[in-house]
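Most newcomers find our protein records easier to grasp once they have seen one. To make this concrete, we reproduce a full record directly below:

…
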Amino acid sequence: MPIHPHSDDEGEALDLQNTRVQKRARCSGHDDNEGLGESSSNEQSSQSQMDFWFHDGDIVLAIERMLVRVHKRVLSRSHVWDDMLEIPQPSYIETYDGLPLVKLYGDTANDWLSLLRWLYNDRQFYTSPSASHFPTLSGALRLSTKYDFPALRTWCITRLLTLWPPLSLVPSLSSTPPLPHALAITLARQTDVPEILPAAFYSLATLKWRNAADGGNAHEVLSPGDLRRVILGREALQELIDEFRSTLDDSPSTLAASDPHYTCKTVLERRWRKAFKDGIGSSNGNGVCVLRTLQEMMIENLEEACDGHLRWHRELARERMEKVVDAVPRMFML
């Protein structure tokens, strides 16, 4: 019986970690990690499938080329699944080894493996390093949204917000490993997580695309509307950077060349021009160059500048960082 379910209620994880696998499923697994280089071997896929082939399972799920034999009571922790399993069945239904066979169209095997690992041992799932890898995280979020497992969905969103946080926190992020910003935008649209969009759009727009970073395949991943947002936002951000580089209109009053503070002003003007001389994506393609540069300027110590001018320099960097953070949602029409 094919099922195309949707989400409508809540679910929780159930820990059945002591249940043992007794039988191998008949079909090999199929891997799909969204082009991120995470594909498993056939042996690994078969082992993953065996992990969820329980001798006392009472329902068989078919996802792509993978079969798993699991427990209705586990699936029923989601009211979506509980409602589906309560629907009266016709006299003839597809079976596998004498059990109901449910074919899940539109889902992927890898997404289901993420969900099942959480369902059968949520504590182990939460502490596993692989749970924070984007393919696992995105799969868990898709299915927790589709089938309404709110605890898992909340955890996934919390993890995503550590990768794509509020813009004011973006400068403190590590630039390695590179993040799949375009995939994150698509995931946020699919699963209704708009909180990560400003950081994801900003980071994608500030990449040096010719380095074959995430921007290199953005046109294949993003919708036409979101691709247009990236382009327009990048242009608007570049205009703002040009302003930072070429003008210091808020600087202390004009000084004569003979004034001892004239050197301070010259040093600071040179610092601002140098900081943004190459424009968008000029740092190393890490997607945080603009905000990170401004954050560095807020705390740096320039020995050639007097205390008064240095305080002005740091305050100007703070004001302009706030300006960028405030402007990004408008730049990308979010």
